[in-house]
Amino acid sequence: MASSTWFITGTSTGFGRELTEQLLRRGDTVAATLRTPARLDDLAAEHGDRLWIRTLDVTDAAAVRRVVDEAFADLGRVDVVISNAGFGVFGAAEEMTDEQIHRQIATNLLGSVQLARAVTPHFRAQGGGRLLQVSSMGGHVAYPGLSLYHLTKWGIEGFFEAYAQEVERFGIRTTLIEPGMAGTGFYGAGEQRRAPALAVYEGTELTPWLRGTGVSEGDMPGDLPKMAEAMIRIAESDDPPRRQLLGSDAYTLVRDTLTERLRALDDQRDLALSTDRDGLRREPA
Ligand SMILES: NC(=O)c1ccc[n+]([C@@H]2O[C@H](COP(=O)([O-])OP(=O)(O)OC[C@H]3O[C@@H](n4cnc5c(N)ncnc54)[C@H](OP(=O)(O)O)[C@@H]3O)[C@@H](O)[C@H]2O)c1
Predict the structure, then answer these.
(1) Which of 19, 56, 91, 232 is most deeply buried (CB count within 10 A of its CB)?
(2) Distance of alpha carbon 169 from its chain centroid, rounded?
(3) Which of 12, 135, 136, 147 is catalytic?
(4) Tell me: domain 5-249, CATH 1.10.287.990, correct?
(5) Nearest-CA residue for atom 28 of ligand 1
């Protein structure tokens, strides 16, 4: 296959960095964006000609548009955009600061929405493109301690459900990538990632989940290189799926959750149907 050009957000660590390394190794061109460009100095030294780097904080919508415009102008064409930048803030909803809530939504949800919007006219002009949105198994299931993170991932899933239908006619294909747990910077500590603890939530069975210590890295099934490789394969497939889970934890947990939700849905049937106006009933398929 001819080499391709990729645009990726959040390339300093984790999935973004792994994707960038794999793509450069196989001879592709990567427009890598990140908040601290010096973190790619080693890759720039090795692959300078095929690595286009720009500073980008995805919470700055004007900067997202400017950097996307620049990438398409400089590189001529971008085949695949991977919207990857994101993080999770751990804590009970009540414990989170207003600033943490704002940053969580501004980064994972609004940053991803603005990236998709910025890319759309360019993809349309070049006759199509692939957009991978890194969501999470946490876009289907939810755990205590990550309420705001789930808000962003469930939110971006809803956005892409609608957006995909709007843009497929232009040859734009989207996939929500829904990884399970993998050892990246995601579980690292840091002021932005941990809400200030309230005593009332200490010493309960939920406490490890609220503090982000419920699972150790050794128990996370996700293999970072294999997951990145799968993302690349999906982006290049002839008929990419709208959603793709990655990891046995993701598959099992989402399957169990959806099965239970379908069962609960069926239990609601009679009451749901009973509230129609007479003569306007839509029968389930
Ligand atoms: N690891 C998992 O178990 C897991 C599971 C499901 C989904 N995910 C998703 O995978 C994606 C990547 O996370 P990761 O696991 O690879 O974690 P990671 O190693 O912490 O990487 C996160 C990346 O996002 C960047 N980022 C954070 N806020 C940003 C902002 N405002 N603007 C631009 N970049 C920003 C970080 O940059 P800095 O270095 O500047 O902070 C970093 O490059 C996220 O969307 C996450 O929700 C992860």
Answers:
(1) 19
(2) 23
(3) 135
(4) no
(5) 86
Q: What is the pLDDT of residue 1?
A: 55
Nearest CA to 68 out of 16, 154, 131 is that of: 131
Contact 52, 3 (CB under 8 A): no
Structure tokens at 276: 């129609």
What residues line ligand 1, using a CB cutoff of 6 Å? 9-10, 12-16, 34-36, 56-59, 84-87, 107, 134, 136, 179, 181-182, 184-186
Would you state the structure tokens that stand for residue 77, as one six-digit string? Answer: 């064409």
Chain Cα centroid distance, residue 237? 19
Assess whether 135 carries a catalytic annotation: yes
Q: What is the pLDDT along the chain (285 residues), one digit of tens a residue?
A: 578 999 999 999 999 999 999 999 999 999 999 999 999 999 999 998 999 999 999 999 999 999 999 999 999 999 999 999 999 999 999 999 999 999 999 999 999 999 999 999 999 999 999 999 999 999 999 999 999 999 999 999 999 999 999 999 999 999 999 999 999 999 887 778 999 999 999 999 999 999 998 888 889 999 999 999 999 999 999 999 999 999 999 999 999 999 999 999 999 999 999 999 998 888 767
Nearest to 73 by CA among 31, 111, 128, 36: 31
Other Cβ atoms within 10 Å of 142 Cβ, number: 15
Reported in sequence order, the residue ranges of the chain that DSSP labels E, i.e. its strands, are: 5-9, 29-34, 51-55, 80-83, 129-134, 172-179, 243-246
Question: Are the C-beta atoms of 153 and 133 separated by less than 8 Å?
Answer: no
Q: How many residues does the chain have?
A: 285
Taking the C-alpha atoms of residue 42 and residue 225, their distance in angstroms, rounded to an integer, is 19
Examine the residue annotation and report whether 149 is marked as an active-site residue of this protein: yes
Q: Interior CA angle at 166 toward 261 and 283, to 5°?
A: 40
